[in-house]
Amino acid sequence: MLVDPVLGRKRVAVLAYRRGADVTALDAERVAVDGYLWRPDPPRGKGKKAEKAPMPPVETLQDALRRQGPFLRDAAPKRRHDHKDAISIDLLTPEPGRVLSAVEAVADELGLSLWPTLSDPEPVRSMLTRLRADLDQGPKEPE
Which of 30, 43, 106, 142 lies at 20 to 30 Å from 117 by C-alpha? Predict the structure, then answer.
């Protein structure tokens, strides 16, 4: 689940942790959005085995992404032969929610499954920035 923007982010994190979620704060100006798209197996049935439809060409996926808007113009789908002939997409964006919604719409349009991930493109830098901010605040004086 992506919460963007979030008000009271510490409270949201605590509530998520209590329910067993993993929580990551993404403070960078741009977020790395990665997605793996693959064709799901057809439903099983009695008798004849259903044929799995082939993956669409990378160019078809590229065109479908570009139709979603100019914010996806830098998305570069790549064929992956290491995992069920999947296609991967990676993109740095200041609008991860918008990008995820658009990639999900393309996956639905083409009948593909999507496994998205979000990450900080420079996690060490972000960690040091948060640490510095915490140290600059210093200990709170009792009132």
Answer: 43
The H or E element that residue 86 is part of is strand 86-93
Q: Which residues contact 2 (CB under 8 A, 6 or more apart)?
A: 96, 97, 100, 118
Alpha-carbon distance of 34 to 29, in angstroms, equals 16
Amino acid at 49: K
Tokens of 104: 């999900």
List, for residues 14-42, the tens digit of each pLDDT value.
Answer: 887 888 877 777 777 888 889 999 988 87
Distance from first CA to last CA of the chain, Å, rounded? 38
Q: Which CATH architecture has domain 31-40+54-122?
A: 2-Layer Sandwich (3.30)
Q: Residue 47, by phi and psi: left (phi above 0), alpha (psi -120 to 50) or beta?
A: left
